[in-house]
Write a structure and sequence with these properties.
Oligomer: single chain
CATH architecture: 3-Layer(aba) Sandwich
Strand order of the largest sheet: 2-1-3-8-7-4-5-6
Helix content: 25-40%
Order of helices and strands: EHHEHEHEHHEHEHHEHEH
CATH class: Alpha Beta
Number of strands: 8
CATH superfamily: Ureohydrolase domain
Distance between the termini: 12 Å
CATH topology: Arginase, Chain A
Number of domains: 1
Low-confidence stretches: 1-8
Shape: globular
Mean pLDDT: 95
Structural class: alpha/beta
């Protein structure tokens, strides 16, 4: 195992729990932060000699579990949770710490990535977002079949959504399509396909990975990442095949294997550029003996440099 963490540019890691399923269509992701803690996330990172600060859980509105209004479910509550997360994330970045958002559902990436993008603009850094997910998350109010905002965060970050979400970080769009790479996609709604294509987002779907291999996909996803790049990883655990990660509300068969997922994390660690992280959509109510949370922690270990042999 490597003993020198790849993320030496930060003063330490800050865990930010966001216990809500406000953007999801299945209840339970609100319990995700505690499941990750029980699985030993902090201890897994500390073994690399990294200072870990657990900031506890943010406190936001309850989930009213109501129907969609004008194409959005729970928009006021989604805005509140994301604003809280934006502010907490930005504060940790300003303190030169690496924030890890413990979700919660994937709508929360609007807040975390808006803060990361704001920080990058202030620091004059390039941004690269690696979006590991089974879904494209590029729905809009007119396209969505459900109104669940966890299916819309990429669209909102790219400026396609309500103003309260698109300008959260003070700039619209928060994220340029050229700054994001989507990996593992295998479920995209009909309307999303056209939008993703028109926006020019680079997507490495499961067919590409099957044909070309995960290593090649990751080499392309990480191309041109350099010393002036802030690398953000947004990891939805439904990225993984449900045979190894059953604890999610939106499972899609045919996802990456354990070793393919580990290779992704190991190649990110090799860059030494990881600077912020989302862990989302873990639903302990649907898990089996916390195995999905434990797998997520295992992947985070690889992100921070775990390897079988010492490597250059």
């Amino acid at each position: 195992m490597n003993t020198v963490p790849p993320t030496t540019r930060s003063a330490g890691v800050s865990l930010i729990g966001v216990p809500t399923d406000i953007g999801a269509g299945t209840l339970g992701a609100r319990m995700g932060p505690e499941a990750l803690r029980v699985a030993g996330l902090a201890q897994a990172i500390q073994q690399f000699g990294i200072d870990v600060k657990d900031c506890g859980n943010l406190r936001g509105p309850a989930n009213p579990w109501q129907a969609a209004v004008n194409g959005f479910r729970h928009l006021p509550e989604v805005v509140q949770w994301n604003q809280l997360l934006h502010d907490a994330t930005y504060a940790e970045l300003a303190a030169n710490r690496l924030p890890i958002m413990l979700g919660g559902d994937h709508c929360l990436a609007i807040g975390s990535i808006s803060a990361v993008a704001r920080h990058c603009r202030a620091q004059g850094k390039k941004l690269r977002v690696l979006w590991f997910d089974a879904h494209a998350d590029f729905n809009t109010a007119t396209l969505t079949p459900s109104g669940n905002i966890h299916g819309m965060p990429v669209a909102c970050l790219c400026g396609q959504g309500p103003q309260a979400l698109t300008d959260m970080g003070g700039h619209v769009p928060a994220l340029l399509p050229k700054e994001i790479r989507q990996i593992g996609i295998r479920s995209v709604d009909a309307g999303e396909k056209r939008l993703v294509h028109d926006m020019g987002i680079e997507v490495f779907d499961m067919r590409f990975i099957d044909e070309m291999g995960m290593r090649h996909a990751m080499e392309l996803a990480l191309a041109l990442v350099d010393a002036n790049t802030h690398l953000h990883v947004s990891l939805d655990v439904d990225f993984l095949d449900p045979d190894i990660a059953p604890g999610v509300g939106t499972t899609v068969r045919g996802g990456p294997t354990y070793r393919e997922a580990q290779l992704c994390m190991e190649m990110i660690a090799d860059t030494g550029r990881l600077a912020s992280l989302d862990l989302v959509e873990l639903n302990p109510a649907l898990d089996i003996q916390n195995k999905t949370a434990e797998l997520a922690v295992d992947l985070v270990e690889s992100l921070f440099g775990k390897s079988t042999l010492m490597r250059r």
